[in-house]
């Protein structure tokens, strides 16, 4: 997309704090912030990172134009020096993120920002909304794709998306998560996601009868003819009329029919009956598409019931992640620099799960060399390394007596540098590559992590040096 001025898309407190930092001599204080999330939507076992490319675009474009400055001046709240600072603003932060398409887990930093606190704080709102939205939809899309067990999922959600960017970036995220294409045309134009689709009921209604409507469509698109068969009666009129038109308009033009779509009623029963009728007519290769408020649970159920569906169109429940519509990523200060030394900071809470992991960190994913499967993630201090040539002892950060030594593993760093002092140093992969990387990485997870009900909790552990820092800070604060 062309540059959009989204500088003012920020929570107002980011601006009041920024002005305050400016006036209190903290403008250049170096701070570290982490974005992480605490719970996987739908109680799933993992989420999928998405939205990094749009985050990069936002950070690259971040400027305040004259209108923004004028507007802020009119609030009579911000000092003139601060407004002049905003006018000349250019990002100078260092930014790291987990690449798009990577499976991610609660409590690990998926984005880390280091920079003057005035900047690093200010970008919170956009970091969170960008990554929260696309990760939510990529995660949901992947659940739906997995429920379909190899059958294609088409994303049909634009019309029910929450706003145009919900539709466009939702289509992008859904594609990363595994959908084969989208009904959203602009998503093909902008991102190259295949734009696909069938027809609406209005096409059938506009003609004097269903047969005429099917005929007109087949004559116009004999090479790509999928007919919507549920406007009047699927088995008594829709499927028989479709078969007639396939014979009379599609075959004589040298093509095979592409499919029929069922959009209401009992999908299992109707698809089974339709399959028999199509097969008997010699159209074993004609695919059956189902749609109508589908999600991973209905798809799983109708397949268990034996539905004869080859591909699914999924809209509202995917594009809004209806069953769990919030990806609760948060952005927390984890360290500051004093005299070039990194001082870890912690946020305490009565709720153990809400205590933050302090310090400037790296995430390591350990893969078993033999099976290729992911064993655990380990959060370390940023300057630590994990030596693959030696056994490594994992331990549960809460129940530290739970220990496991792994050997013969590959250790991969997950946080990759996006910006070096404000300059982008990362080239986003092509969307298709992100999509196939996503599939590959999900294949490294054990089935137990992927199941919908009570998935196995994947280990996100702390290295001993990081655990020591966390423990020391906890002791210090509880002593106070
Ligand atoms: N065999 C099935 N098992 C479980 N759920 C199904 C099955 N067939 C359809 N559904 C789902 O049941 C829900 C309601 O289906 P229903 O046919 O009643 O839809 P509807 O929208 O009321 O129909 P219409 O579009 O004719 O008004 C939809 O979410 C649909 O996907
Ligand atoms: O149910 P969803 O998962 O959101 O899938 C998309 C829905 O959108 C369309 O219906 P709509 O009634 O909007 O238009 P139509 O006239 O083409 O049926 C389509 O027929 C699906 O039912
Ligand atoms: O192409 C389709 O069949 C389609 C597109 C959007 C929404 N529902 C269906």
From TrEMBL:
CDD domains for the chain: NAPRTase_A
Keyword Ligase assigned: yes
Entries under Gene3D superfamilies matching the protein: Aldolase class I (3.20.20.70), nicotinate phosphoribosyltransferase (3.20.140.10)
Domain Nicotinate phosphoribosyltransferase C-terminal: from-to ranges: 361-469
Pathway involvement of the protein, from the record: Cofactor biosynthesis; NAD(+) biosynthesis; nicotinate D-ribonucleotide from nicotinate: step 1/1
Entries under PANTHER family matching the protein: NICOTINATE PHOSPHORIBOSYLTRANSFERASE
Keyword Ligase tagged: yes
Domain Nicotinate phosphoribosyltransferase N-terminal: 8-132
Organism name: Lutispora saccharofermentans
EC number in record: 6.3.4.21
Family per record: Belongs to the NAPRTase family.
Function: Catalyzes the first step in the biosynthesis of NAD from nicotinic acid, the ATP-dependent synthesis of beta-nicotinate D-ribonucleotide from nicotinate and 5-phospho-D-ribose 1-phosphate.
Catalysis performed (reactions): 5-phospho-alpha-D-ribose 1-diphosphate + nicotinate + ATP + H2O = nicotinate beta-D-ribonucleotide + ADP + phosphate + diphosphate
Domain Nicotinate/nicotinamide phosphoribosyltransferase: 153-324
Domain of life, source organism: Bacteria
Protein name in UniProt: Nicotinate phosphoribosyltransferase
PTM annotation: Transiently phosphorylated on a His residue during the reaction cycle. Phosphorylation strongly increases the affinity for substrates and increases the rate of nicotinate D-ribonucleotide production. Dephosphorylation regenerates the low-affinity form of the enzyme, leading to product release.
UniProtKB keywords: Glycosyltransferase, Ligase, Phosphoprotein, Pyridine nucleotide biosynthesis, Transferase
Record Pfam families: NAPRTase (PF04095), NAPRTase_C (PF17956), NAPRTase_N (PF17767)
InterPro entries given in the database record: Aldolase_TIM, N/Namide_PRibTrfase, NAPRTase_C, NAPRTase_N, Nic_PRibTrfase-Fam, Nic_PRibTrfase_pncB, Nicotinate_pribotase-like_C
One function term, GO molecular function aspect: glycosyltransferase activity
